[in-house]
Amino acid sequence: MRLARCPLRLREAFLEALYGTTAPSKSSASRSDSIKRAIELVRVLEADEGPTYTRSQNLVYLQTLILLAAEAETQARSSTHSAPSRATWLASAVGVAYHLRLQDAFDRRRANLEDPDSNDCLGRRVWFILTILDRWHAASTARPLLIPDANVVLQAEDLEVLGDLTFQLTRTYCPSTYHRLKLTG
Known about the structure:
Layout: H1 8-22, H2 28-47, H3 55-78, H4 86-99, H5 119-141, H6 158-173, H7 175-184
Helix pairs in contact: 1-2, 1-3, 2-3, 3-4, 3-5, 4-5, 5-6, 6-7
């Protein structure tokens, strides 16, 4: 439903990025074409100064950037076109996440926990996935974090929203968050 409410270019960019990162490896040329198309669409979206997205649409845009970050290293190794680096995609995604204030503490009273696909729950999951990707990228490139530990506050309620795997990954890759959780949770 969220995707259906997005402008056509944003919807296409997301779908191309999704296909490009998840299609079977047998279709590598097709995957590469999808990523190239997604990059083109994102560049057009970034050049458009007029459109303003709803929170829901911004979450789709953020997920598109995360998918492109995940695929960036494969594209850089397999082609000669000038695709942005993983660092560039992550920096853009972090900017969108901060714009959406996803780093703010999760308000259980305000969130609709009955709907795991609500904007609040999705935003919380996307924030921690981005945080984990940032840590993996920083560790693999010996570069500083884009998201400082102070902006990563894991709450006991997050287990319900994130699920066990993402919750445990966050605890593992954000150790200072884990200590705060033990003290406050």
